[in-house]
Amino acid sequence: MPSARRVEWAKFRITAVGIAAVAILSVLFYLLTGGRLLKENATLYVYVPDATGIARKSAVSVNGIDVGKVSAVALSGSNDPNRIVRLTLQIELEHLADIPADSTVQLSTESVVGDRYVDITRGNSPTHAQPNAELAYKMQPELLKTLDMAQFLQQLQALDATLSDIQAGRGRVGEFVTTDTLYNELSKRVDELESVIKKAASTTGMLGELTYTDRLYRRLREPLAGLNDILGRIQAGQGPIGQLLYEDGQYAQIDTQLTNMRQSVAALRSNAFLQSDDLYTAWSGALASMIQSVDSLNRSALLVTSDIYDNLNGTAQQMRDTIRDFREHPQKYLRLNLSQRRAMPH
Fold first, then answer.
1. How is the chain split among helix, strand and coil, in percent rounded to 5?
2. Domain boundaries, the chain
């Protein structure tokens, strides 16, 4: 039976997943609605003779800027040929001030094969359209009425001149169509390109060697094989690392060394010098006494004044002179009184 803690954890995970799923669905729904889900909208109406290509969710723009969507396309029930279909427009409320009351509406196409949309052309009125108001529909002019025939004829003449040049072999296109000069040139270029590719693909080149030989593969494989061999020996318990991982001998030896080291550290910590300050105090007293003796010696007359040194130096010099004189003139010290010797009894 699962524990209470695991049950609580499972409930927490389910709750978190549910919250995340709701958040993801909310964001997805917001993106699918074009970010207009929570925006206030205003309704405008347009009556058109034909709504071909316009459907619900078709775009509504003001001078090329999207401001809303078509919410409904329905028959108006009117007998006026210019008011057969009613379009309901949902305009973002913040863009309603950008639509003057005299603005006109046309049904335009993004491209030749693009979707149709409601194109609002801004008017000049100082007041903007009010909600539920009707915008005027502006009929598109017929194509033939707006076509400049002179310009169209000029374009046809230019096209005919281009085709005549091609047929006569003038220009790059005409040369390509009527002669084989450009084809031969292109073929030569292709042959040169093929030659370059063959040289690059040759086994003597680096690219060819990489593509058609296994030399690089062997270079990459050798260190990998060596690494695999080392890992295999370790897994088999061979070598120092393998013995350390799979045998207890080296581990026991290392453990013994660490134990001895730990005991040595413990013995060092239990030393009297580290446990108490008696030895330190004794050493400190001995050093203080020695320092005091040295200070006393420095303060003695022998080292403070030079009198004793001068006396000793004078005595030494006098003794040196006496010894030198004795060596040079020994007769001065060995003279005998002959008269005294004669007077001495035999």
1. 60, 15, 25
2. 1-37, 39-140, 149-179, 214-270, 276-331
